[in-house]
Amino acid sequence: MRYMLIIVILFYYYSCEELINIDSEPPSVTITSPQSGSTVSEIVNITCVSTDNKGVEKVELWIDGVSTGTTDKKEPYSMEWNTTTYEDRSSHTITVRSHDVNDNKTDSDPITLVVDNSTVHPAMVNIKSITYNQTQMKIIWEKSKDGDFDYYELFDSETESGIKSTIARITDQNDTTYILNEFDPSQPTWYWICVTDTFVFSTMSNGYLIMDNYPTRIEINNIIYENSSFIITWSQSPDNDFASYKLYESQNEYMTEKALIYQTNDKSSTEHVVTNIIVNEKKYYRLENIDIWGLKTSSSVSIGSSLLKIVFISERAKDTNQNIYLMDVDGSLQSGLSNFSKYVDYPQFSPDGSKIIFYYSENDNTEIFIMDIDGNNESNLTNNSARDEFAKFSPNGLKIVFGSLRDGNFEIYIMNVDGSNQTNLTRYEGDDFEPDFSPDGSKIIFASHRNPGGIYIMNVDGSNQTQLSNIWGTAPQFSPDGSKIMFVQSKDGIYYIWIMNADGSNQKNLTNDMLNRYPFQPRFSPDGAKIVFEYGNWNNREIFIMDVDGDNKINLTNSLENDINPEFSSDGLKIVFDSYRDHNNEIYIMNVDGSDQINLTNNPACDRNPRFQPRL
Q1: What average pLDDT score do residues 55-75 get?
Q2: What pTM does this model have?
Q3: What is the rounded (10 degree) CA torsion for 600, 602, 605, 607?
Q4: 98 & 203 share domain
Q5: Which residues constitute the domain of residue 80?
Q6: What would the pLDDT profile of 21-35 be if each residue is shown by its tens digit?
Q7: For residue 588, is it within any domain?
Q8: What are phi and psi of 397, to 5 degrees?
Q9: How far apart are CA 378 and CA 380, in angstroms?
């Protein structure tokens, strides 16, 4: 009995000792990184220190009071927190719960972290270029430099704000080019490149619009009328995607009921000739430049006109320079042909009407220029430091006779129409000037101040220089048939218009009944039966006409202002002149009897010195 009692006492003793040694002490835990108040992004390592007398079983990450299920059982303790699912600039409470081996547990003091992934998205890469030809389109973009790159994605859309469609996904970071074989640049299309990283953060590029540029606008050059044809030319298209030219013709400026008259796929073919054009006809033309995508650009409407042209001087440029202008005989299609900075004067057509010669004066030097009727191929023919003036075409248009001061006094020179072979014909000490060819081109008449002075005639090579009149005169000219010579002569301080036979005989004063005033600028009518001239004092000059024998003098203009520089049209039915009746010089035209006087230029600038184009 006594032994039984001892056993019970011992059992009780050891049982109490075991209860006294049961572990109830929780572990300690402290978050060491990151610091509370930090801003974090992407994957964050939460590190902590945890100790326990019996040993730590694990540490567990809690966010905003909710376990993430993320644990670590080995020192050093570190747990990853993926912040990419949280809103940017959101604040969160982080704690770590530590469990010891006896299932005692303790929470760390909380820290507060701010999530902001807005600055860790992949850097934007933009499309650098999109080029294309007829078969393929090449898209090139910038290379991503992000270390956590995952892939590129190429998108397109019909509009900048429309739904984007994926074209391709490229996982090679170095591959920054994509080729499209199916595309239509005539339809506007937007393209983007998006880069995505391993955290599925992505950044979209700026949009890149591709819409094929419309073809270059090609304008028709001034349409030339010659040989009953319109010569229509234009510049070559610079477009790489050129497909064709189309030329349309209409009977009106609105291009209604237009007809396609020419089409070509040859980019270098830039001329078309419209034949069978009759006199005094106008037609209207427009050129289309079309590319391979079907886009087209139309030129302005250009007018082909077989009406006679009038060349004249105008100061209508903004800087008031005088320049050469051209218009139709009805006053339409006024256009500038030259662009000089100083004084331009005395334009005249070549016998075939295709070229114009004129004077240009600057720094006390006058040169003779030539250009095509459309203003192209302008050239200084004389190119001499001395004055060169009084230019006239030979009847065949191959030679030009003129006066030059290059030898110290005015001499009569002749040259080819291109300015070559300039030859002094007169070689006298006195001034020789104002030359003119005979209608057959074999003779040249001129005014001379040599001793004795007067009107002289010579062969076209300068030989056989013969005095025809012994009184000082100016402006000698042959009649259209070459049988007469008309000139202006001064006698006793009064100017008169004289006429004589081509050999100098039968000299006759045609205006001796017009005293105390001054007749100037006489011109033969094309048939030689009439003479038009200006007459009056310096304040009021009028246009007169008379028979070739001086009879039937008629004042055609009868205005209160100066009317000067008359010239017959090639058919003899019209007279063009310039008038100050509108208080600035304007170009007028009238019938040969003085009726229907019409202002052709009607411009506030000074317009003067008109000359008719010959009609062959």
Answers
A1: 95
A2: 0.69
A3: 10
A4: no
A5: 25-115
A6: 688 899 999 999 999
A7: no
A8: 75, 5
A9: 7
